[in-house]
Amino acid sequence: MTWKTGQQSESGQLALDGSAVPMVTVAKAPEPVASASPVAATTATGGTPPGPLPTPGGRDAITVPTGSTPPSTEPAADETTSGPGPEPTATPTTDPPPVQPDPTLVRQDSGNVELRFVTGYDSADIDNWHAGQRTDNDLIATEDALLTTGGANLVILAQGEPDHPTCRGLRDSGTERVPYSSLAKGTYLCARSSDGRTAWLQIATLPTADRQMVAFYAFTWNDPT
């Protein structure tokens, strides 16, 4: 503290009566030094002090940087078993057995077949019922009878339309000649072709003095030959 009388002191003023007024000299606080790197203020929320959150899993947990691939947890491959595996064993292939014809399927359902023997004879192929004077046909119509060649044969039936087992069972007991006199309209016959197929015929028209023609409905099964 400094006392001055009747004059202004360096650190104060005179009182009205000229007495010295005690003045207190206050030291000026030093200017704060600016920080080289300003620190952002952290506002605590809910009373929780700022700071890094604890890492889950304790100190042994793995810290994965953002954007990086986490380390693989797959077990390492056994180097002793690495390398290409064994080559597959080729399965031997065999040719499938040949497909056998199904005798229940129709080979030829020809409808009406007409054999005209104006010139002496006419013929047809029992397998396909193609009519005409061909040397390989196995059913021949003459003036008085139906004939077969090449191992083909005919059997007259007493009953109605036969099935496949019936005609096939008679294939070895037929005859090579059936006279028209033993036939009537509607009569059924079983037939065996020269290739071994089974068929049946139903007489539709028999020859007369004015009509030198025999007509029948024919049906052939797809037997194996």
Strand content: 15-25%
Poorly predicted sequence stretches spanning 5 or more consecutive residues = 1-19, 21-27, 34-47, 57-64
Name the structural class: mainly beta
Distinct helical segment count: 1
Q: Kindly state the mean pLDDT as a whole number?
A: 72
Order of strands in the sheet with most strands: 1-9-8-7-5
Number of strands: 9
Q: Please bin the fraction of helical residues.
A: under 10%
Structure, explained:
The protein has 225 residues and is mostly beta strands. It has a domain at 106-221. It is 3% helix and 22% strand. The protein is built from 1 helix and 9 strands. The strands form 2 sheets. The chain has a 5-stranded antiparallel sheet with strand order 1-9-8-7-5. The protein is elongated. The chain starts with 105 loop residues before the first strand and ends with a strand. Residues 85-101 have a biased composition (Pro residues). Residues 1-12 have a biased composition (Polar residues). Residues 1-20, 32-111 are annotated as: Disordered.
Task: State the gist of this model.
By secondary structure, the protein is mainly β. It contains one helix and nine strands; from the N terminus they run βββββαββββ. It has a domain of 116 residues.
List key phrases describing it:
elongated; 4-stranded antiparallel sheet; 5-stranded antiparallel sheet; disordered N terminus; 225 residues; mainly beta
